[in-house]
Amino acid sequence: MKLITAILKPTKLDDVKDALHAVGINGMTVSEASGFGRQGGHTEVYRGAEYTVNLVPKIRLEVLVDDKDVDSVLGVIVKSASTGSIGDGKVWTTPIDQVIRVRTGERGPEAI
Amino acid sequence: MKLITAILKPTKLDDVKDALHAVGINGMTVSEASGFGRQGGHTEVYRGAEYTVNLVPKIRLEVLVDDKDVDSVLGVIVKSASTGSIGDGKVWTTPIDQVIRVRTGERGPEAI
Amino acid sequence: MKLITAILKPTKLDDVKDALHAVGINGMTVSEASGFGRQGGHTEVYRGAEYTVNLVPKIRLEVLVDDKDVDSVLGVIVKSASTGSIGDGKVWTTPIDQVIRVRTGERGPEAI
Amino acid sequence: MEQAVINSGDTAWMLMSAGLVTLMIPGLVLFYGGMVRVKSVLNMMMMSFGALAIVFVLWIAYGFSLVFGDSVNGSGLIGDVTQFAFLKGLDNSEAVIGTIPAAVFVGFQGMFAAITVALISGAIADRAKFGAWLVFAGIWATIVYFPVAHWVFAFDDFVAKTGGWIANDLGALDFAGGTAVHINAGAAGLALALVLGKRVGFGKMPMRPHNLPLVMLGAGLLWFGWFGFNAGSAIASNGTAGLALLNTIGATAAAVLAWLLVEKMRDGHATSLGAASGVVAGLVAITPACAAVDASGALIIGAVSGALCALSVGLKFKFGFDDSLDVVAVHLVGGIVGTILIGFVGVDVGLFNGGGTEQLVKQAIGAGAVLAYSFVLSYVIAKLVDLTIGFRISVEQELAGIDLAIHAERGYEFSDNNQGNFLASSRGAQE
Amino acid sequence: MEQAVINSGDTAWMLMSAGLVTLMIPGLVLFYGGMVRVKSVLNMMMMSFGALAIVFVLWIAYGFSLVFGDSVNGSGLIGDVTQFAFLKGLDNSEAVIGTIPAAVFVGFQGMFAAITVALISGAIADRAKFGAWLVFAGIWATIVYFPVAHWVFAFDDFVAKTGGWIANDLGALDFAGGTAVHINAGAAGLALALVLGKRVGFGKMPMRPHNLPLVMLGAGLLWFGWFGFNAGSAIASNGTAGLALLNTIGATAAAVLAWLLVEKMRDGHATSLGAASGVVAGLVAITPACAAVDASGALIIGAVSGALCALSVGLKFKFGFDDSLDVVAVHLVGGIVGTILIGFVGVDVGLFNGGGTEQLVKQAIGAGAVLAYSFVLSYVIAKLVDLTIGFRISVEQELAGIDLAIHAERGYEFSDNNQGNFLASSRGAQE
Amino acid sequence: MEQAVINSGDTAWMLMSAGLVTLMIPGLVLFYGGMVRVKSVLNMMMMSFGALAIVFVLWIAYGFSLVFGDSVNGSGLIGDVTQFAFLKGLDNSEAVIGTIPAAVFVGFQGMFAAITVALISGAIADRAKFGAWLVFAGIWATIVYFPVAHWVFAFDDFVAKTGGWIANDLGALDFAGGTAVHINAGAAGLALALVLGKRVGFGKMPMRPHNLPLVMLGAGLLWFGWFGFNAGSAIASNGTAGLALLNTIGATAAAVLAWLLVEKMRDGHATSLGAASGVVAGLVAITPACAAVDASGALIIGAVSGALCALSVGLKFKFGFDDSLDVVAVHLVGGIVGTILIGFVGVDVGLFNGGGTEQLVKQAIGAGAVLAYSFVLSYVIAKLVDLTIGFRISVEQELAGIDLAIHAERGYEFSDNNQGNFLASSRGAQE
Ligand SMILES: Nc1ncnc2c1ncn2[C@@H]1O[C@H](COP(=O)(O)OP(=O)(O)O)[C@@H](O)[C@H]1O
Ligand SMILES: Nc1ncnc2c1ncn2[C@@H]1O[C@H](COP(=O)(O)OP(=O)(O)O)[C@@H](O)[C@H]1O
Ligand SMILES: Nc1ncnc2c1ncn2[C@@H]1O[C@H](COP(=O)(O)OP(=O)(O)O)[C@@H](O)[C@H]1O
Description:
The complex is a heterohexamer, with 3 copies of chain A and 3 copies of chain D. By secondary structure, chain A is an alpha+beta fold. Chain A has helices at 13-22, 70-81, and strands spanning 2-8, 28-36, 42-46, 49-53, 56-65, 89-95, 98-101. In chain A, helix 1 packs antiparallel against helix 2. By secondary structure, chain D is mainly alpha-helical. Chain D has one domain: Orthogonal Bundle (Ammonium transporter fold), CATH 1.10.3430.10. Helices cover 63% and strands 1% of the residues of chain D. Chain D has a two-stranded antiparallel ribbon. In chain D, a hairpin with a 2-residue loop joins strand 1 and strand 2 (100-101). In chain D, helix 4 packs antiparallel against helix 6, helix 7 packs antiparallel against helix 8 and helix 7 (212-231) packs parallel to helix 9. The longest helix of chain D is centred in the C-terminal third of the chain and has 31 residues, at 358-388. The termini of chain D are far apart. The chains are: A alpha+beta, D mainly alpha. Strand 2 of chain A pairs antiparallel with strand 2 (28-36) of chain C.
């Protein structure tokens, strides 16, 4: 099993959620984050003073998937999250040893 | 070493914290998240209009543990977090290469 | 590739960010958390009643790095985040299978 | 304007009423601001502050004169713009209107204009260019509000010799502005919602209020300020003001109960947004009627308005116009309820109260005239603004949030982490 | 009620005072709402709005008559319910009470009833069924507040010929409601806290205020509104009102300093919750005394109340009753302090001020009678409500948060991410 | 003080004005509190509440006497401290000043002192020891505010026979406190900012406001309260009060537009912080002038003040003093603008309005005298406080946040997760 973690633009969350739904993914966890990368932050002027804002709001999406689904899910996320402009985000996968569903105690792929 | 990540109902955080304390775990990190899974979201009526809320608030709990403690800690979390109703959450474990305690620079199991 | 996760004191975020910049790291993700560990929480008195606060605010910092950079980045984080007092935090590394840049679809180290 | 003697008691109440009516702007700003999503709260608030600023300057320049100057040709349609231009003769400590200093009357009535314009902004939350809104506000005040206020508020021989047709010729009762303020703003809100179109996600996402405690506080401040609006419309500290005040409490209490009851029955729970909306629905409906009914009549008007407005909030989904904060359901519907019910429960004149249908017909004509005039003109003005400078922000700006896109600010910074770093020390200092 | 002449100055001040007292509801709503945890803020606010709505309707129907109608059999216990039912004869612009329009007096006094009921809700934060609370509010107003207000506020020959026993027979001094409002609400709060029981986690989790800026603002608005409450109780714009106003500032300033000093010495730091609580403690204590003491007396009353109330907030932990927002420590204790200290520092009548112990005894009897009557009746009413329709929500609802469980709302939506999706376009529209 | 007759209308307005001026404290508390970072909001609010409490107690003890007692030796510099010590002879319901109860005048003027002190705190956000601030507040009120208020507000033969030099000898016009309040507080703020030094990160991090809706509401409440401040300074309910009220709206509307225009041109966007700041800039500038200009003059003063204050907010970065919330740019600059412009646009006396340069010179002398006196004394007092008990918290406390470090509280607890657990049941209960 793998954990797919995606850092996305907040405005794309709905699209990604819908796209995942469409391919049968019906579980995910979302949280708030901020970050910067190549986009580097942008310059703002406020009350006559100029400064850079280097942490911009992002959404972190986590999806546990069975090994066989990793590639297709990655593809769906990248496709639905992309706007082509800087700051679109990253997606990465981490190996997972064990997953348990709390309610039932089921383990492994059935627990996802 | 392993990182145990648990997505829990917010109202169960205190119970889980106490249960972990009781088995000698004295370190953890908590953050806020929201998610959905089999529970799928629920229907609400507001101002005469009906809609589904599909992201419900959750707590993310992270505990670094020594390999030998993984199973017992998993057991404690699942037991103390479970209410038997849908949306109870997931727990998973990830392999960790290295842990450092910032204050002392200690590495490995002693750093946990 | 590795994911470096660091739990830090909020007041040290700026220092760590600057230190990472200085060694050429130009991407990271930040989120809010709270935690406790050996520092165990502290006692407060409020309105004449005494209690312990056991979750204190922390910052979670995540940086994806190429394998070869792991050690140096770890060193930079630990050095710039340390105050020598309890509650300084933890840093750990997780193996990553795959990284994708959403905007371009690039994969692997170039995507970081 | 007669050179009468100032009554210090009347003046005290009207000074206070002018203050109270000014406080309705912050009240509205919270009521509206708390109701939008977190990314639009500042823009929502700015629309009211901006409207107040621009309308009041126009008020001094020519607005008061258009409303309270002698009716041009005795037509009852509009006042003489030159008569009090820049408040000629009124902005000193000697001038008197009725039994109070002229300056107080000017200030009091000027805030009515400002509030009416501010009310409209609730229909176009999250998506209007700020500059375009200010332009609209100035034009709308000039060619919609000032004439209509002349019709309704300019009584013959009060400020000038000749006044407006609704007040003097038709004889419809509108004590504090059910027609001139609420029906007027409600119809304009509908027109604007149609011209600007729906927000991205309207009807798909619920777009719930981001800060309900602010909404509750806003409703509370509006209520408090409304005492000046209604009881102040007596332009004196007397029994009429007293009755208006009492009815302003009674109707509002009844409207809250009615709204919550509808919600409980329809949705299964009574909400705080419902309580706050009920407050405003009651206040709106009693506005025209507060001096024309007794306490029981006020309870009836409040209850009917609370229930009908609560049932009306769904109309926008049914008919597909994005009246974002329910200006139509609360101000248009509530204003009509109050204006028409005078014809039923008005003391002496109401159908159920010893009168015939005569007053009812007058009320309907007054309401209908203002509604039609306001809707048509508002639609035309908004369309022209849209065709020339553009009224709506881009979809990207709307998605990112209008606060950040247009005002370069976020409502709240609850974390210190996304603060940036200064580049230059300051550009302001270089000027 | 005599057909006297209206004084426009007195009327102006009383119109304003009625408004100010109404504003105390939003003030209280913030003060209480900010103090609870984030998951209960809306319910807390709704309890006050709901109480106001229901109590004011009852006030019009029969409450005013029970308080200010002629005392039944001259007993001094309760007014004649039929005399002013539905404000018969008072809800028009001609009726006069004292030197002001009757309608203003009715409105002003009606808000006293509403506020007293709303104050009680602080004792049962986070856990009361909303419907049960409304039922309790209506019954409590009827059989506790209306009689007690008759005892204290109905002076012979003011509205009616015969009034209440505390005001006329006993002669205890209570200018603006130390007994009828604060001791009364405080005792009821204690009774309700006992009947409903402790919240889950009481005494284990600190349950700190979720929004202290709102608490500070609430204290500020309460202070402002309290000028109407205290100085308005002169029912005139005169020297008595002026003295009441000055003392309402002086006592409050002293109480803030005293509360902060106690905190600094006891806990090591002066808190903003302490400052806000000190404001209210000072206001409560000066309420009965504001026209009976000089400026130095006001400072003394404020300081004593600030210190004693600060020391009392721990009692609930010691005795194990969950008076969630310290209604007992602030309103009951503060109300007793102010009522009793008149017997010591009252000009002419106080023990330290040329008087004997006579007034002190009267004050104690007045305070004790209201306390006992209110506590017993409140306990009985609450028990009956609990046994019939149930007063408390379920543990699951309490844990999930009463706002979501009962009102289907969350106070704040600072993130757009947990917004949902519409299913049907609208059910409201289908009606 | 003559034993004149109370006018109930004047009294009604002054009762209300005293209330309105009190409300400016909560207004300021929001305006300032919303503008700081989230970790300092409570301390910011506490500084105003604390200043109010301490200054008002001093006011009763000897402040009123220093300001309104007979000028010592007829010097015009300071009043007789014994004459009205503890309000001797004024704190009863019979005493009269002008046409109103003495107690109302005392309360009204006392809040001026409190507000002036509170205004200063904006310059030292995030970093002042709370105890040191209270000590400073008490000393500053005593040796800066009370003398200056005597100079400006004590007219011969009003309260006492002889008054202050600016009001009576110089004849500079300052209707409601452009010099005594705003220039005074602004100069003190500058001195304090210099003594305390910059915050950690000043000029590097933007330190944006954490809650702009509160700032907007604060500006709204300040505006409302300012009606009491300005129109109440007529100490009567008359035409002068009316004119002051009207100008207080006109100037503010113009200032908002001017500030937003400067921002739009300089920065590319009009902000809500700009709108709120514009409100205050307009209010400050019209304060001295509100009874001396006509409506057009008020528009000019407002527009000039809005523009100049907007351009001044960058000065602190240029000159490197951390006047955190722009007390200098808004109150010092705005106060000077208003005071000086009377010399240009004042009716009859202004250079552009039929007068010569005479009044202009008087205005400049008055402004300069207050500015110099206040700056020097404030600097000395602050330095002494700093050298003795220390004025500034430690860097660690500042980084962690002054709310937590000094008051043991956080402004908001929007999550229930970092609540702690009780240890002992309560220490408070053990006392
Ligand atoms: N090395 C990294 N480690 C962790 N997160 C990163 C890293 N680089 C980028 N991110 C996250 O991805 C987001 C988008 O990255 P960015 O480089 O700006 O976009 P793009 O990949 O489109 O150039 C950042 O805001 C940050 O949250
Ligand atoms: N595939 C998944 N990936 C990541 N998180 C998940 C996944 N499925 C469920 N979750 C998380 O677990 C929570 C509970 O899951 P759910 O399926 O509703 O409960 P249950 O396992 O009791 O049926 C969700 O709200 C979500 O945060
Ligand atoms: N076992 C653990 N698992 C996850 N997070 C931990 C663990 N121990 C500590 N932490 C995190 O690190 C932070 C600092 O830990 P602590 O033990 O207090 O510091 P130190 O390592 O300096 O003694 C905690 O607040 C918590 O967020």
